[in-house]
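Changelog note: in this version the structure field was regenerated for every chain. One regenerated record is shown below for reference.
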Amino acid sequence: MFTMYFFMIFMSGFYVFCSVRKHMLLILLSLEYMVLGLFFLIFLYFNIFGYTSMFLLIYLIFSVCEGALGLAILVSMIRGSGSDYVFSSYLFVC
C-alpha cells in the first residue's frame, strides 16, 4: 500500500517536472519531490528484503549535494538576469 503511495509521489513530481518548464525554482522543487519519493521507495524495498541501509545514507548525501548545486545555479541565474525564467537569454551565454 505504501509502495503505491510513494510511487504516486514520484510520478506527480515527474509530471510537474515534465509539464512546468517556465521557472527554475519549480523545476528544482519537482526534482526534490522526485528524490523524496524515490528515497521512500528505496527505503521500503530495503526494509522488505532486509538489506542494509548504508546506500540510503549515500543517496541522501548525493541528493543534498544536488539540491545545493541547484540552489547555487538558481542564485547565479537571478543575479545575472534578474529572474528565474529557464528560457531567458542568460542561460545561452557561455
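Spot check on this record: The mean pLDDT is 86. The first helix runs from residue 2 to 19.
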